[in-house]
Amino acid sequence: MNTSGVEMAGTHGRYRSLPRSAGITPHLPTGSPLIPLSSPTEAELTHDSIASLRVRASYSQLPTLRGITRTVANNTGLDVDGTADLALAMDEVASILIGHAIPSSDLTCRFETYGRTLRIVVSVIAHSEIPDKSHSFGWFVLEALVDSVRLEQSEIDADGHITLTMTLEKGLLQERA
């Protein structure tokens, strides 16, 4: 991975590297599949993968993750409120995973559509499992912001690490206003 920037890949190849400084708003190249010129059609929304992203598992990356989440959500048909909800949910999920990540770990994020649903899959290599949070306030907030949230934890590997994966799903609007 390029240690000086954010690595992104989409359905049409890799994008340029972005600086890692906190608060940077990513700008994707013109013609990117993430920037449609009109409302997405049903055929456009059947793509399995929109983009993938890998950043250092650091709280300083939260603004970048929120910005990319807003861009993807807006360009797949979510309204302003749905986009804001998804950005807040991404912030919470990334914060949870970063808090459990091993030092120098990367956080990976995949944006994909499944029918009329936007799915975001976020993973990190961690030093320990996440205790059951399904009754916590943070989990309650996540469930209010998205249609579905799941936590998956792999078996402990030979190095004593596990992969934590959280998946968010949010239904897309039938048509953009």
Summarize, please.
This is Anti-sigma factor. This protein is of the alpha+beta class.
Give an overview in words.
Helices cover 25% and strands 29% of the residues. The termini are far apart. A hairpin with a 2-residue loop joins strand 5 and strand 6 (117-126). It has one domain (42-171): 2-Layer Sandwich (Heat Shock Protein 90). Strands 1, 2, 3, 4, 5, 6, 7 and 8 form an 8-stranded antiparallel beta sheet that branches. The protein has 177 residues and is an alpha+beta fold. It has helices spanning 62-75, 80-100, 137-145, and strands at residues 5-10, 13-14, 18-19, 51-56, 106-114, 117-126, 148-153, 162-171.
At CATH's second level, what is the architecture? 2-Layer Sandwich
CATH topology: Heat Shock Protein 90
Please give the share of residues in helix: 10-25%
Query: Measured on Cα atoms, how large is the radius of gyration?
Result: 16 Å
Fraction in beta strands? 25-35%
- How many strands? 8
N-to-C series of helices and strands: EEEEHHEEHEE
Global morphology: globular
Structural class: alpha+beta
Domain count: 1
Q: What is the CATH homology-level superfamily?
A: Histidine kinase-like ATPase, C-terminal domain
Mean pLDDT: 77
Q: Let me know the largest β-sheet.
A: 8 strands, antiparallel
Poorly predicted regions: 1-38
| Number of helices in the DSSP assignment | 3
Organism: Rhodococcus erythropolis (strain PR4 / NBRC 100887)
Protein name: Anti-sigma factor
Region (Disordered): 1-40
